[in-house]
Design brief:
12 strands, single chain, 25% helix, 6-stranded antiparallel beta sheet, alpha+beta, Glutamine Phosphoribosylpyrophosphate, subunit 1, domain 1, 7 helices
């Protein structure tokens, strides 16, 4: 379990670094091992991370993690179960790795495939990637929504986090959502994508979003469990895939420099 946070200002004003750090560190319980901060070149976007070291315990797994060419920077919460298999794919096989972190594998896969990388992932995850060249944020949540991803969107800014309280810490003056309140009173819980706060939403499982510096947001569904049940062929393929995964005994490790 890690904690991720990020913010973008649409009006050209620079990010308040102290506010980002405060929001990040109110999730220190999610990642007691390390913390990090990234600011875009023009300082209108920020990514922050609280790390719980699981796979690669070394400092090489530090986040936010930036690609070698400096274009992409990622913050990731979760685990990519098939990251060693991904290392054998043509898209990343020829590349050198600085760490043994699944986050670095995810970063390289995204740099090569973009949103298409989601079709290759098996795991539980919520991650965001800032594209410094295009000035655009990409964020995605795993198929079943095991890992949380909340985001705030208003006329001047965008922010996301693993926990609502980090967004509340960053924005301060949030008001109660009437839709969220109604859902809670009627159902005993708040139905996504609504949350208890106005203009703050939960990214649905199996969805990804993109946000540019002008404030244009697009949300796309990339997977739905019902798709696997609509035909006998898809069900058979799913059972075959699960069976092969259970029988797999060894996956060759990837190379490091």
């Amino acid at each position: 379990m890690c904690g991720i946070f990020g913010a973008i200002n649409f009006n050209g004003s620079q990010i308040d670094q102290a506010k980002v750090i405060a929001a990040r560190d109110c999730m220190a319980h999610r990642g007691p091992d390390d913390s990090g901060l990234y600011l875009s070149e023009d300082k209108t976007a920020a990514l922050a991370h609280r790390r719980l070291s699981i796979i690669d315990l070394s400092p090489l797994g530090h986040q936010p993690m930036t690609s070698e060419d400096g274009r992409f920077t990622i913050v990731h919460n979760g685990e990519i179960y098939n990251y060693l298999e991904i290392c054998q794919k043509s898209e990343v096989k020829s590349q050198k790795f600085r760490s043994k972190s699944d986050t670095e594998v995810l970063l390289k896969l995204f740099a090569n495939l973009g949103a298409e990388c989601l079709n290759h992932l098996r795991g539980m995850f919520a991650f965001a990637v800032w594209d410094e060249k295009e000035k655009k944020l990409f964020a995605a949540r795993d198929r079943f929504g095991i890992k949380p991803f909340y985001y705030l969107m208003d006329n001047t800014s965008f922010a996301f986090s693993s926990e609502l309280k980090a967004i509340k810490n960053y924005k301060k003056n949030l008001s109660i959502s009437q839709n969220g309140l109604y859902s809670f009173l009627r159902n005993g819980s708040i139905t996504p994508p609504f949350t208890i706060y106005e203009n703050v939403y939960s990214l649905l499982p199996g969805h990804y979003l993109t946000v540019d510096r002008d404030g244009k947001i697009e949300i796309t569904k990339y997977w739905w469990f019902g798709d696997c049940l609509t035909s006998k062929v898809k069900c058979q393929k799913l059972v075959l895939f699960i069976t092969k995964r259970q029988k797999k005994k060894f996956i060759p490790p990837f190379s490091t420099p």
